[in-house]
Amino acid sequence: MNYTCPVCGYDRLRYPPRDNTICPSCGTEFSYDDFLDSHEYLRAQWIAKGARWWSPNQPPPPGWNPVVQLLRSGYGYTSVTQNVTDRIVLVGQSTYQPPANFRLVESSLPAANALGHAAA
User: Fold this and answer.
1) Is 18 exposed, middle or buried (CB count within 10 Å of its CB: 0-12, 13-18, 19+)?
2) Which end of the chain, N or C, is more open, meaning fewer C-beta atoms within 10 Å of its C-beta?
3) Helix (H, G, I), strand (E, B) or coil at 13
4) pLDDT, tens digit, for every residue of 49-67?
């Protein structure tokens, strides 16, 4: 049986996301990293750092794409913005953008889709 990471949507975890299981995709160590920070916040941080495959020992699945993984999981694709409201805004992009392109000025989605979690 496989489990899904509640941070990045990786759906091939060998163990449930708890008790110090580490996701090879985003590197979240459950019961440690998510003790004080929400999964939404950890997801935004992973994306802000480039949404790169984390594990040096387990290679990503063939054709792995972090944006497709997030969209398929239903978590959406989030990016940290540094605008007037300092919000993490949900954006619907279908192609992967490198970290240098993560500076969003505005979202094409209505404000009701903003997560409203303050950036660190």
Assistant:
1) exposed
2) N
3) strand
4) 999 999 999 999 999 999 8
